[in-house]
Specification:
mainly alpha; 434 Repressor (Amino-terminal Domain); 5 helices; Lambda_DNA-bd_dom_sf; Cro/C1-type_HTH; DNA-binding transcriptional regulator, XRE-family HTH domain; DNA binding
Length: 98
């Protein structure tokens, strides 16, 4: 059984949310409007600076069509690297999205 470091778990959740938001070409503001959160709060979640509640994880997951289990699956270094590369590429592609 994998034992999560809470800081790493918050960062992991944030990166997954960021990845799916960018895939849908949404700004933090747009996502926040859809799920009833501020842009600033979405940003803090994506940066791993706050603990998202289960309620907020479910709202975001439902809107972005994320299988909630992905937040709690340990990823290997290659998978993490692929996520970071995709985030970087999507940010470059969609420079107008914050």
């Amino acid at each position: 059984m994998y034992k999560w470091n809470l800081v790493n778990l918050k960062i992991h959740i944030g990166r997954i949310i960021l990845l799916y938001r960018l895939r849908k070409e949404l700004s933090q503001f747009q996502l926040g409007l859809e799920v009833g959160m501020s842009r600033d709060h979405i940003g803090r979640i994506e940066r791993g600076q706050t603990n998202p509640t289960i309620e907020n994880i479910v709202k975001i997951s439902d809107f972005l069509n994320i299988d909630i289990l992905i937040f709690f699956i340990e990823l290997n270094q290659n998978e993490l690297s692929n996520i970071l590369d995709e985030i970087k590429n999507l940010k470059e592609k969609n420079k107008n999205i914050e």
